[in-house]
Amino acid sequence: MKKTVLITGASSGIGLEFAKIFAKNGYDLVLVARNTAKLQGLAAELAPTKSEIISMDLSDPHAPKKLFEIVTALGLEVDTLINNAGFGDFGNFHESDWTKQAQMLQLNINTLTELTHLFVKPMVARKNGKILNVASTASFQPGPLMSVYYATKHYVLAFSEAIAEELAPLGITVTTLCPGATASGFQSAAAMEESSLVKGKKLPSSEEVALYGYKALQKGKIVAIHGAMNYLMANSVRFTPRKMVLKIVRKMQEKSK
């Protein structure tokens, strides 16, 4: 019997590449994103892989329960959950648009947590399942000029590590994928193309990051940091004075001159 993977944020970037990789490896797909046309195009591209398309805005507080109800009504058993949907924002917190910050908190934290809560229960009943939550190298330190985004990703990492320990004896693995800056469309959505972190840099592709995440998930790895330099930087934070970390991150984030 074929396994089924549900991927949020599947219409572009890392989520789209996850869909291609899982299809190649024989999974049926449940593709979730706002853009119906992009999802339909992806499903057609991946044929004859069976793809269920569910179009919805996951920043809506009612979306997680609605999504779970749709999947249940379709009679699908989700063996693997990929919580990939999320976005960031760039700039000073006091100058930011609160509506956008609230949507980010809802999507990056609340939606991810509720979807995990809903879909993990059937996995526990079956004593089998895999979850991958997409965090970031931003998870490991505070982020001046992207304060809310960094904080949401710190939550994703802490939450995911904790439940990985809880669920391990029950046959469920939880992997947190922590990519650095990636060529995925994230930067334009966050209005950070001029940031020193990305401007003029050759960034790893979404395909590269998704493949790394897929392999880490299959191995049951708890935390997967993509890239040797990202790994070193993420871990060096533990030995660096906090005030210095703040200054370094701000310098990295500031607009390139």
Describe this structure in words.
This protein is an alpha/beta fold. Helices cover 48% and strands 14% of the residues. The chain contains nine helices and seven strands, in the order E-H-E-H-E-H-E-H-E-H-E-H-H-E-H-H. It has a seven-stranded parallel beta sheet with strand order 3-2-1-4-5-6-7, with helices on both faces. Helix 2 links the parallel strand 2 and strand 3. Helix 4 runs parallel beside helix 5. It is globular, with a radius of gyration of 18 Å. The model has no long low-confidence stretch (mean pLDDT 91).
Specify Rg, calculated over alpha carbons: 18 Å
Distance between the ends: 56 Å
Strand order of the largest sheet: 3-2-1-4-5-6-7
DSSP, total strands? 7
Q: Which residues form runs of ≥5 with pLDDT under 50?
A: none
Annotation field: number of helices: 9
Largest sheet entry: 7 strands, parallel
Question: What portion of the residues fall into strands of 2 or more residues?
Answer: 5-15%
The best one-word shape is globular
Features:
7-stranded parallel beta sheet; alpha/beta
Write a short abstract of this structure.
The chain is α/β, with parallel strands linked by helices and 257 residues long. The chain is 48% helix and 14% strand. It is built from 9 helices and 7 strands; from the N terminus they run E-H-E-H-E-H-E-H-E-H-E-H-H-E-H-H.
Give the SSE map.
Blueprint: E1 4-8, H1 13-24, E2 28-33, H2 36-46, E3 51-55, H3 63-73, E4 80-83, H4 98-126, E5 129-134, H5 147-167, E6 172-178, H6 186-189, H7 206-219, E7 223-225, H8 228-236, H9 242-253
Parallel strand pairs: 1-2, 1-4, 2-3, 4-5, 5-6, 6-7
